[in-house]
Write a structure and sequence with these properties.
The chain is mainly alpha-helical. It has 6 helices and no strands. The chain has one domain: Up-down Bundle (Four Helix Bundle (Hemerythrin (Met), subunit A)).
Length: 155
Amino acid sequence: MSPNIPPRKKIKIQIKQIDELIDEYEELINAGKTQKPNKVEIAALASVLHSFYNGLENIFKIIAREIDGIEFEGEKWHRELLEHMNVGTPNRKAIITDDIIEITEDYMSFRHFYRHSYSYLLEWNKMDALVKSLQEVWTQIKNNLGNLIEEIERS
């Protein structure tokens, strides 16, 4: 993304992309809430979970770098970035609240597994909670991001 784009616009772009991801696969996500998907559907849902967390992490990097002035590096930067979003700073409130930090960590862990595994190894019992909570978790994070954007626009 261009460095000339303000952080609030970058965040809005990422929000729109996650919204489109969830909208595009809403039927499959909802079906996964009531019945066990077949292998092809499991692979598709795994891809959605992977993309979802990638989008979250893109937003978190924008916030850390451009709002908080922090760049995370090293082997554990993914976890440190996520934990950083669980606390407020002088510039913002927490983006990930205590009630969803654990499930958000599970999305991050799943994304790591997905990137380093083969799709035939995917197990529905390790994904179903993530699929079932996806829309609720996104709604909460998106609301917190909306509050952040409003704060930025007021200042």
